[in-house]
Amino acid sequence: MQGFRGNSGGPGLMRALSTRPLSRRMLQGVFCLAIVALPVQVLGGERVKSQITHVLELFTSQGCSSCPPADKLLTEFADQPHVLALSYHVDYWDYIGWRDTFGSDHNSERQRAYAKAFANKMIYTPQLVINGLHDIVGSHGRKIERLMKKSRLPAAASPVKVTIRRVGDSIHISAGGIKVEPGERKPMLVLVNFADGAEVKVDRGENAGETLVTTHPVRGWQLMGMVGEEGMQVDMPVSSVMPDGEETYGCAVLLQAVRPDGSPGAILAATQMEIDPD
């Protein structure tokens, strides 16, 4: 694939294989979801953000000059009590002079899956996906706010219940209350691991000389399974979301509908847990 630039100041574009089916990895992703009594609850060394109404997934790159304004805007949204903000750094701009320190093809794969869901012929940065339902240029703040007003997760009012809590050296995730109509696909439970944030000085490429700030850069994501009416219980080691133990890490859990063609649909519930190093 070969990338090409739009008008000055516009998003970077990359031709997408929009007819590419979802890979086994996409259908094996994991989302961490939790709903608790307060928007942010402190449990020991963990902070759980509950009653999520908006999941903002930004596809970005340190090698794209159009992305820093979107990165900055996502940082502002991340501070809101009911917003889960995630930065998926893609790898397809690495060829123009700078290798993104958080970039991965796995993140690019999730973006391609959304391109299939939205019937987009192109993938681009910065792209923001709101609640799995809408995509928009990630630096268009006013338009993003208007779409957020139109799209809200039911949060505490939803019969879908997903929780996350730490039990010693383990993390326990529970999902239930799902109702699957005949002929519908079961929703998928996806776990996303992220770092708290980072500042990166870029030496080459379009952003050479700039120090870029990113919020919740995704370090990995995986599908934990498909959730039926019987629900799902998952236990995993804390170390799986704290790779080095030297900085704050976290996990986001999303319960996401699956479209008839297998591509990701609306996010039904979500939460995040941040864990400080011991």
UniProtKB/TrEMBL annotation:
Superkingdom in the source lineage: Bacteria
Name the record gives this protein: DUF1223 domain-containing protein
Organism expressing this protein natively: Jiella pelagia
